[in-house]
Amino acid sequence: MKIATYNVNGVNGRLPVLLRWLQETQPDVACLQELKAPDEKFPEQAIKDAGYNAIWHGQKSWNGVAILARGEIKELRRGLPGDPDDSHSRYIEALVNDIVIGCLYLPNGNPAPGPKFDYKLAWFERLKLHAAQLLTHGLPVVLTGDYNVMPTELDVYKPERWVEDALFRPETREAFKTLVEQGWTDAIRKLHPNEKIYTFYDYFRNAYGRDAGLRIDHFLLSPQLEGKLLATGVDRNVRGWEKTSDHCPVWIELSE
């Protein structure tokens, strides 16, 4: 079973890129972030024509998450619990092939310190509480998406330039570390513990051409899935396509 995550950076504006990637790589499940479209503007028919059922949680101009699946998909939750006043569309959860899949778009948090950074850390706390709850159910779980965190210096080009950034501040990295220590497996680091792997390249300063990237799109696996992990990868070439997102698709393969 192949599960992918892809921050599309605008699902309608980059629809040709998304459809080409789906057709070329054919993941069984694809989790999307930054739809930047309200619910009624989600390109459901184009996704269906590509062979996928979909659930989505949209928002005008910002945020937005979706889960696509080749087979049956059952929505379990939209929105992260813990703050009824949070209007951001950043989390959606589904059951696919008896696996719980949570698709998330964690806040960026810049500028830090400040209200946006406070919101990021508060959202992280809510995620940790929900993730801990998911582990108690005994079902296999995948938590994937754009976490907006570089967990270690290996995950960022020239880390010394990022020490004050919300994605790399000690508080952010500590929040990710404590999340993983609940019992989750960072899939990419499980199979590639010391390899330089990036999933995001800025549009500026030829970052992609210089391989000056960040690893901020992650797969966390519950204990039931750790032993089923066969492969992980980044479709880096997609970042080089015309009118593409600044993120690369990331994927894992699990044994049945």
TrEMBL record:
Assigned keywords, A-Z: Hydrolase, Magnesium, Manganese, Metal-binding
Site features described as Interaction with DNA substrate, chain residue numbers: H247
Amino-acid biosynthesis is among the record's keywords: no
InterPro entries found in the cross-reference section: AP_endonuc_1, Endo/exonu/phosph_ase_sf, Endo/exonuclease/phosphatase, ExoIII-like
Record-annotated Endonuclease/exonuclease/phosphatase domain positions: 4-247
Feature type site, description Transition state stabilizer: N148
Cofactor: Mg(2+); Mn(2+)
GO biological process, one term: DNA repair
Presence of keyword DNA repair: no
GO molecular function, one term: metal ion binding
Binding positions for Mg(2+) per the UniProt entry: N7, E34, D146, N148, D246, H247
Site (Important for catalytic activity): D217
UniProt cofactor note: Probably binds two magnesium or manganese ions per subunit.
Pfam assignment, any one: Exo_endo_phos
Domain of life of the native organism: Bacteria
Catalytic center residues: Y105, D146 (proton donor/acceptor), H247 (proton acceptor)
Family of the protein in this entry: Belongs to the DNA repair enzymes AP/ExoA family.
PANTHER family: EXODEOXYRIBONUCLEASE III
Name of this chain's protein: Exodeoxyribonuclease-3
